[in-house]
Amino acid sequence: MATLLRSKLSNVATSVSNKSQAKMSGMFARMGFQAATDEEAVGFAHCDDLDMEHRQGLQMDILKSDGGEEGAESPLEGDIHYQRDGTGPLPPSASKEAGVCSELSGQGKPKITAWEAGWNVTNAIQGMFVLGLPYAILHGGYLGLFLIIFAAVVCCYTGKILIACLYEENEDGEIVRVRDSYVDIANACCAPRFPTLGGRIVNVAQIIELVMTCILYVVVSGNLMYNSFPNLPVSQKSWSIIATAVLLPCAFLKNLKAVSKFSLLCTLAHFVINILVIAYCLSRARDWAWDKVKFYIDVKKFPISIGIIVFSYTSQIFLPSLEGNMQNPKEFHCMMNWTHIAACILKGLFALVAYLTWADETKEVITDNLPSTIRAVVNIFLVAKALLSYPLPFFAAVEVLERSLFQDGNRAFFPNCYGGDGRLKSWGLTLRCALVVFTLLMAIYVPHFALLMGLTGSLTGAGLCFLLPSLFHLKLLWRKLLWHHVFFDVAIFVIGGICSVSGFIHSLEGLIEAFRTNAED
Q1: Would you say 219 and 452 are in contact if contact means Cβ atoms under 8 Å apart?
Q2: Where are the transmembrane segments (predicted)?
Q3: Do residues 510 and 451 touch, judged by C-beta distance below 8 A?
Q4: Which of 105, 154, 317, 359 has its CA at a distance of 20 to 30 angstroms from the CA of residue 145?
Q5: CA distances (Å), origin 207, targets 30, 85, 247, 395, 404
Q6: Long-range contact set of residues 226-234: C-beta below 8 Å, sequence gap at least 24
């Protein structure tokens, strides 16, 4: 009897400890010290993966002595086992991430307000990649400005219809939430013939976007450092190698606790940098070259600009989790409206003002046009932000790859990369290091920020923001849609498909040409 009592008390203590940790994680999340406050917002996408795993049979079980054999010892604090189809331990990092995501899942836990949700969306679509928008105006002129507005309207609409796909009407005529993530929506559209095909497509698109984001961070770091110190005998490739050497410890990450607390500081620093750039441009308002803004486009390079603009608005991948965590989901539409209106205004003004200041001399990364006296300071802050932002998409990409290829139970393609004690095996660590080196190689051989950004936006950005949401909306809810909704969905799918294919082809051609040039050098 005494043993049973001690066991129950130990279980209660462990449960209270876990709940208190989850509450602290939620508190920091609401304050902004969370991976979700990063401009790529990969924290919520990562929580989608953990939620999907849990629904597929993953569960955290605390060993209880009253269900086992007589004389069994009561579990110690932290004696938690992770079961995947009944086997396999959870790495310590994954249990901590699962705790954070259980807080975000909102089941009986504090949720975020519409303003906090808007902050996350704003960080996703107002990140440092807006630095490439003036370059899009260089090749698109007034049409580029129109596309910034058009992309904001379309992405706001597709975000809303994507959330609509999470809900269905039950037998009583009530609208209820029956799906939890982008992957769930994709799988529902491909069922019953291919019940997992849609989720795999979405996961592949997500991995490509996350890895390309990592590559862009290395490229922009090398570019900024090279242009900040042009007199030093260090090439852009060498700066990229130095940046990667700093990022190599990311392969040893077990969780994002060590870096996520800097995300809010990085975001605020980026807003300050944007204000400084705009202030400098306004100081030269008398010299603005209005006559340089074109009414025509560069046919060869403008499709690349389309990808740049689309990539700067990507946020759909984490919207289902964000909406599910809101205190009042009915405020989601209003939140999407004001965040995208604000993004449209700020991006349009930033791109136009920067282009009017430097006109035809506008560079791929606009801060490279600043005078040398302030360029170095601004660029160093941007490099620090890029390096601190790199672990977020890298960690999310690693988690998706490990779950899909190494930890998917009997469906895994390779053996589990974690040992019986939950530690990462040496060859698993080697694969993580290889991924860091892969981002370096891509940054060295294709050191073109605009081309890589355009390619990513045309491939995964257009697919996740334009094509798939409109297609899923038609597939799941076509019987209940009004004619104008059907028209909008079809128009977005067709226009998005044309822009995606055109931008992808031109970006790929540019990358191939750049790759050949660098190989010859």
Answers
A1: yes
A2: 143-167, 207-226, 262-282, 302-322, 334-356, 376-401, 429-446, 452-474, 486-505
A3: yes
A4: 317
A5: 27, 25, 19, 11, 11
A6: 227/365, 227/368, 227/375, 227/379, 228/375, 228/376, 228/379, 228/380, 229/376
Looking at 1.10.3470, 1.20.1260, 1.20.1740, 1.20.5, the CATH number of the domain 127-409+445-520 comes to: 1.20.1740
Residue percentage of the chain with pLDDT more than 70: 71
Sign of CA pseudo-dihedral 115, 120, 123, 124:
negative
Rg (CA), the chain: 24
Report the amino acid identity of residue 262. Answer: F
The CA distance from 106 to 420, in Å, is 31
Residues 6+ apart with CB under 8 A from 279: none
Q: Among residues 147, 196, 457, which one has the least CA distance to residue 315?
A: 457
Instruction: Say how far apart CA 154 and CA 492 lie, in whole Å.
Output: 8
Position 503 scores a pLDDT of 84
Residue 259 has pLDDT above 60, yes or no: no
Residue appearing with tokens 């038609």: 474
- Per-residue pLDDT tens digits for 90-114: 443 333 333 334 433 444 456 788 8
Cβ neighbours around 328 below 10 Å, total: 12
Give yes or no for a cis peptide into 92 (omega within 30° of 0): no
- The model's confidence at residue 374, banded by pLDDT at 50, 70 and 90, is confident
Peptide bond into 192 cis (omega under 30): yes
Angle (CA) 245 514 450, round 5°: 75
Which tokens go with 9? Answer: 């008390």
- C-alpha closest to that of 252 among 432, 438, 78: 432
Integer CA distances (angstroms), 362 to 289, 295, 316, 348, in order: 12, 17, 30, 16
**Domain extents for the chain?**
127-409+445-520
Task: Please report, to the nearest 10 degrees, the dihedral formed by the alpha carbons of residues 432, 435, 441, 446 taken in order.
Answer: -150
Per the structure block, which two tokens stand in for 309? Answer: 């603009």
Q: How far apart are CA 130 and CA 330, in angstroms?
A: 30
Percent of the chain with pLDDT over 90: 18
Quote the pLDDT of residue 357. Answer: 92
145-185 pLDDT per residue, tens: 999 999 999 999 999 999 999 998 888 888 899 998 888 89
Q: Are 304 and 502 in contact (CB under 8 A)?
A: no
Enter the tokens of residue 366: 């606009």
pLDDT at 518: 67
Integer Cα distance of 296 and 261 in angstroms: 45
- Give residue for tokens 């989720």: 199
How much is the pTM?
Answer: 0.71
Residue type, 142: Y
Backbone dihedral region of 89: left (phi > 0), alpha (psi from -120 to 50 degrees) or beta?
Answer: beta
Q: Hey, what are 185's tokens?
A: 């929506």
Q: How many residues does this entry show for the chain?
A: 521
